[in-house]
Amino acid sequence: MSECKVLLKHADVPGIETLSVYESCGGYAALKKALLEMTPEAVQKEVLDSGLRGRGGAGFPTGRKWSFLPNDGRPRILVCNADEGEPGTFKDHLLIHRLPHLLVEGMVISAYAIGAKRAYIYLRGEFLQGYELLEEAMREASEKGYLGHHILGTDYDLEIKLYRGAGAYICGEETALLDSLEGRRGIPRMKPPFPATAGLYGLPTVVNNVETLTAVVPILEKGAAWYRTMGTEKSPGTKIFSISGSVQRPGNYEFTLGTPLSEMIETAGGLPPGHTLKAVVPGGASCAYLTEEHLDVPMDYESLQAAGTMLGSGGMIVIDTTHCIVRLTKKAMSFFRHESCGKCTPCREGTLWMDQVLERLEAGRGSEADLDMLTDLSGNIAGRTFCAFGDAAVAMVASSVKYFKEDYLAHFELGGCPLEKEPVL
Amino acid sequence: MTAELRARCEAIRAEYPDAQSALIPILHTLQDAYGHLTDEAVDEAGELMGMTRAAVEGVVSFYTLFKRHPKGKFHIQICDNLSCCMMGSGDIVKHLEERWGIREGEVTDDGLFSVERVECLAACGYAPAGQVNLRYYYRLTPEKIDELIAGLRQGEVASGERV
Amino acid sequence: MITLTINGLTVEVEPGTLVIEAAKKVGIEIPVFCYHEKMKPVAACRMCLVEIEKMGKLQPACATPVSEGMVVHTESPTAKKAQAGVLEFLLAQHPLDCPICDKGGECPLQDQAFGYGPGATRFSETKRHLHKHWTLGPLVVLDQERCIQCQRCTRFMEEIVGDPVLVLKERGAQTVVDSADGRVFDSLFGGNTIEMCPVGALTSAPYRFRARPWDITQVSTVCPHCPVGCNMTATVRDGNVMRLLSRENREIDDGWLCDRGRFGYGFLKDEARVLTPLVRRDGELRPASWDEALTRVREGLSGNVGALGGGRMSTEALAVFSRFLSEDVETNNVDWRVGGQTTALAPAGQGRIPDIDDAEAFIFLETDPMAQVPVLYLRIRKNVVHGRGAKVLNLGPRASTPLGGTDILYQPGEGAEVIAEALRGGTSYPELTRILASGQKIVILWDGTDSKLADVLRDVVEGRDAETRILVTGGYANSHGAERMGMVPRGDGLDAHGMLQAAARGELDALLVLQTDLVREAVDGRLAEEALKNVGFLAVLGHLLDETSREADVVLPLAAFAESQGTLMNIEGRAQIFEPAAAIPGECRQDWEVAMSLRDLEPNLAKAGQLMAEMLREPPAAPRGQEREAGAVMVLRSAYGKGVVPEPYLEGTVAVPKAVFEMSPRTAGSYGVSEGDEVALEGGCRLGGRVVVTGRMADGVIAVPEIPGANRLGNRITVRALEGSVSA
Question: Partner of C444 at 20 to 30 A CA spacing, among A50, A358, B14, C643?
Fold first, then answer.
């Protein structure tokens, strides 16, 4: 077993970003099936039955999320979260820049399913090229009747608007995204109310990740039952894993969920010859480390949770022993400090404090008491913050103390980095 | 503010009539037009949106891409997050400084270049990754940097790479 | 009702109650920073995290509604650890400023660090540095390092005031509160943010570094600056008022103060404060003894005497003065209504302030609530924006509230006809007709000036099937008391305008002026000046040497509100007692003392109080209106007036009106001026200012703010564009 290309099946076909090539590869067949042969409720049911889980990081069952929309007659909105910013993750980057039509098709099907006539794609500001590609794809799709008024001759209309962010990781959090889409500072909102009842402009809104929306296409095309033949019972289907770091062939690889970690690393070329594995960050910087002890862990939502970490976005960073784990942990903490929105005390003050401590520890000026303090501070942040950013911010540092205490102690003893790495800027 | 620029901003307002959604695209537009968000641009955005300058600044200051100080004609962003850091982004930043005199926090004397280290650009598999004027350049090496900078200095367009 | 358990105690509350409110009901205090009773919770500080059984994570008590059978633990080991954790985080970057911080000793952060904190910090890194003296405005200085980003200030300005002048800037731990450069924090309600700030971040510019909480006393008092009568606490050090704080009265101020009141104590120490009785000898005012001064006054007040003012005096003093004037001086020329008012009492349907909360419609009748009764504007706004959603109708030559609604503009003096027509079911003003005919509860705020409106309003109250309440906004802090004490013309006595006319013609032998700067506050300032020059004898009771008291033959110095005690009756007619806070300076005396001395009585507050109570039993007489000449100028008058109370702390703030002249587009056109032009209005005097063209002014009328000289313009003016103006 290695890759199982469903979403990425045609990713390497030249010109796949154009409508004609996309269609020639079977594109928009699923859309036709959904709009011309199925009711919105039937489409929803298919997605629900498939067991598809949100691919952005939270892993919440998509069909269930759609079902939370109230039947109160208010207009509904679909928002695509294309704010990919989780360090280690670059699957949406590929999907948007290589397969824009797949996303468009997935969005039309999903919007149809939930009865939304308005949709937005919130793109991180750095995806300027993605914006242009999607703009062109949407233009092509409209011309062909796959988007806009009377799609495929039905009475279903959908308008998709593209909206660019301006550089803030927190806008990947769905309620912060909505605030940003409303032109404000991207600060997470209090839940309840959930976006399903009061989302964009107070209207019932569903926010889905790029990959989630593209997955709707094969699910509709081949059916929920087929989707469930892949993956595990609780984590059905395939997922794109972005593999980077100490592997010989970094890139996006699609696997069925449940594929063992070691197999994924192998598929990405494995470690460079003579290099030893130190750690793996399985699903982006918001996840706790895994060590060589965990090489057999099946990569699905439950198994990783049981291993004390998360599948998250599937942004996997492989780290070998030539890299300094203390340095990388500090780097991650600097990231979280920089990206904290500042609303709640533990995250705002905690990320700053821990970043300052890690800077000191990296320079070798610390003691075991500092490590105990980091663990305790992590405990005072996780589960105590306004949004999940807090839990994300402490995952790596808390697990680093758990698994890599010796590395820290070596820094202290030496008064610097044993690998002679330059401190983080 | 030119009539053309105003017209574009007002078209954005028409396209995003709800809440203050039009603000962020307008800020992007003004920043692209002026090079960075000058005091005038902030006031213009406030005037277009019926918002106080403080409210506009509150939004501007939250987002990393909005710049209140001049950038170079080519603003280089080098990702310095986990994977890119492991793959040598630090060397790229150093090379830009040592070979080309392009330093963080400055614009080169000819006004052409500025550089900053940024957080994850979602291109970890192509590390070290960077952008010039928000267009991607993958798998950077000192040689690639040399080719890029030399080309830009000779009037080439920063069109970015396709993934 | 929902029953839940908190720390073992059972409590029953309405559905929708927040856990923190339920806890308060059984006396359990949950520590908070960002939570504020009067604003929507944001759950940002995380200080109120509590353990709730069957809920996995700790929950913020301020944002969690109760549910049936909920079991809450606010002091469990987990909750305590969370509280200590939050405090440790807050204190990590918080500067060690306590020894020099204004808030020290009355600081929620200190208190909670002591009560819930970890005891010692583990933080040993370098604290971040931000601006420590960031001038947000003339009255508020921000120390950005101390800020804990609770957002109370930003939320207050946006949610309660509706003026989002404070914003958050930057991100993460660099987040700071700011207002835009060039736009100072100039809200009339800005001072409330100082009080609600749970740390010493927002500080009062006049109070900074002036006192420490352990060497002050706090005394209850009532604001003397407008008819609302907000309750306050005076902070006193060594007999001096150092600052004023809110003393929440839910039925009046709801815990807010406007800056005019909050910072309206600087005049106590003004250079112009009169500290001894002054008697004119050889053409000059010279210090004299009280005996001599009182004798001179008794002697001087003979013949054809008039008495003006008193709208700011205590009711006890007014009771005695009323008898003094009717029995000793024997005059019917008595009038508190120097501003041209007709009455301070509602002609019918006297409203109470809480009526604002359940009003279904507001009619602002020839009044600007924000200018005349600012704190009530906040209460009104609460109804309109966050509460019932009452409709708003603005009637008059000028419509001003930022609350929108329907404007019905008419010429000065036409108000009665407009309302009468609508009451009859007329079609000229359909919105007004509809609301009057409806079953909705209407609260009318009327400035109390046009006497024809008094009769029409009576018809409205009596003619409607539904409840109508009226609040008269155009008086002073105790106009209600003055009127109840009979300080209005009796029989064919002269009214204020009549007295000034008579005095100007030399037909008045003596004038007693009670705590008002007539020259500034009279409807016609030039007439007032003439009156003061030509009256036979002038006695002035007040605080300051101003344009009026300078003309006096005798000046009797009064103790000010913070230095004396007595009763004020506010816009509702509610009697409120104010206590003496500061030491009485010099030889000033309390107003009721002076009144009793003039009657040759031993000063005795209880006796004055008894007289007041006796007179309150008499029904109020409805005074007749004063003659008014309508014209091109409308002076926007308020009780604050900058007449009696020049306020040094408020210079340069929005509390002091700026010279802008509002007019309709047609009016501007008729004068040949445009928006933004610098012009001079020339009439009885020359006033410079800037033109503001607005659709919310009736044609032919120019609104002139209460700037010096406004009441000297008169009604016939020319408008001259100044050199270098914007338009041709």
Answer: C643
